[in-house]
Specification:
single chain, 273 residues, alpha+beta, 8-stranded antiparallel β-sheet, 19 strands, globular
Length: 273
């Protein structure tokens, strides 16, 4: 499978979109960006759609093919959220299945997809929290959580928060490996940090995803056993694209061109991926 050529979205409106796009004006189009995890790496793929069909992109059956015709991702959308079983091709020989449900907080402040097997924990101190089932006897460090911090209370910016988080992780855990990336987009900057750590004789896979709004810094953390890294990435990436806070997309696929930058820590230089 190659990503050199433009992939294809096949759904109930794709053929109509292709016809209109061919004869239409570029100024009436909007870019739709979707993310896949394939062969151990994150790929942002893009397609252009007519602006009038924006609301139909995430309704009904949805299937992404590579230019060669291989299915990368398939499933069903209902009003912008994934429902039921989705299939993901993470390599030439591996397919991942995730059964998605939708979560809405009581005040509708937060809406997001989450895997069916997760156990939701209602908490006034978090935007979203779930326990991750595992065979381990240690349960409290297998979790997914979304925290919101007021910028005025923190008195630091997003980059400083990222640095502080990395410092705390390295000082409190036995870090075996790590990888740091920055996602630069039209609507802002996001930081992705992944760690393999040793804790209580177990190897854990820890993912941190950071973003911000005008008033807040959002800290998304996913901690689980290092058993299936591919599935963990698939879940995180699709969950953050589904997440809405106060009705706004946290990591919208519309109108974005994400640039990935590899980072070193401590932050001395940046290496363009």
């Amino acid at each position: 499978m190659s990503f050199k050529n433009k992939p294809v979205i096949r759904n109930s409106i794709k053929f109509l979109i292709l016809i209109v796009s061919f004869f239409g004006c570029q100024s009436d189009q909007i870019q739709y960006e979707y993310v896949v995890f394939y062969e151990g790496d994150i790929k942002f793929l893009r397609d252009r759609i007519e602006n009038e069909y924006k609301d139909k992109m995430e309704k009904g059956e949805f299937l992404i093919d590579s230019q060669e015709g291989d299915t990368l991702k398939s499933g069903l959308f209902r009003n912008g959220f994934k429902v039921g079983e989705w299939k993901y091709c993470s390599s030439k020989t591996k397919t991942i299945s995730v059964n998605w449900l939708k979560y809405s907080s009581k005040d509708n402040l937060v809406e997001t997809n989450y895997p069916q097997e997760w156990d939701i924990i209602e908490s006034n101190s978090t935007l979203f929290q779930a326990a991750i089932p595992s065979n381990s006897l240690i349960k409290d460090d297998k979790y997914f959580v979304i925290l919101e911090h007021n910028k005025q209370d923190l008195e630091i910016d997003l980059q400083d928060y990222w640095n502080l988080l990395n410092k705390e992780t390295h000082s409190s855990d036995s870090v075996e490996s790590h990888m740091f990336r920055k996602f630069s987009r039209e609507d802002g900057v996001f930081y992705l940090s992944t760690y393999t750590i040793k804790r209580n004789s177990e190897r854990l896979f820890l993912i941190s995803f950071l973003g911000e709004s005008e008033q807040s810094i959002y800290d998304i953390t996913y901690s689980t056993l290092k058993e299936d890294k591919d599935k963990n990435y698939v879940i995180l990436l699709d969950l953050i694209q589904s997440l809405r806070v106060e009705g706004q997309r946290f990591f919208t696929p519309f109108g974005q061109s994400t640039k990935i930058t590899n980072l070193e820590w401590p932050m001395d230089t940046e290496i363009i991926s």
